[in-house]
Amino acid sequence: MKHLQLVFLRHGQCQGGDILRGKTNVPLSEKGLTQMQQAFSRLVKLPDVVYSSPLERCLQFSDLIAKQYQLPIKVLDGLQEIDFGEWDGQTWQTLYQHHEAKITAYWANPWEPKHTPPLGEYTVDFSARVQAVVSQIIWQMLQPLAAEVAVDPTTVKSASTPSALIVTHGGVMRCIMAAILGVEQAAGIFNQFHLPYAAVFHVDVYVDGHYLEHVDQDTFAFNNLSVRLNWPGLSDLSQG
């Protein structure tokens, strides 16, 4: 049995004001960078690799950490936040002033296609994208094991626990949490997970060496793996 660990880190506070950020590309504020540095400093060990959303509020910190600790970094489009379409980048005040009923319905049940913002990404598609990219990350982390299993399927020699830091967005993290807990597509589920700026959670992934003999990258899927969510107590770093 091979044990991997994924460490998800949400970006910190951003510049740009009180807006709905999805695909809107804004940098971190000075406070936001400090929030992420503080969160990173509390990790038990350094990750082996950094994966990052390409949006600046994630990549700014990911690139900094990768250079500081000489870690490999991989930027994946699938780790981007959901695209809110015509609502993206608008202030909350404007959204509620002009679209209060629609935006209230969306947050109550974002899985319902008719609640999707105009030209926005369907939440079902977003969740599938997120699970696919996390599967891709796990698959890449397992390649050294796959080579080992090809030589001897009965033996897994490595006792280490490879780990990856995944710097991403609140929506991405909520999708993974919902999938792990088996509550995907539950109405209101995104409102139930409190993930402040620079929030962290860990996912332990367990893979049997024999399983790798029967799958390839196209058939390997996150929802077929044995996973455990570790969600420590979090301080609300977005306040104050």
Automatic annotation (TrEMBL):
SMART domains: PGAM. It holds the Pfam family His_Phos_1. It comes from the Bacteria. Keywords: Hydrolase. SUPFAM superfamilies: Phosphoglycerate mutase-like. This is Histidine phosphatase family protein. It comes from Shewanella subflava.
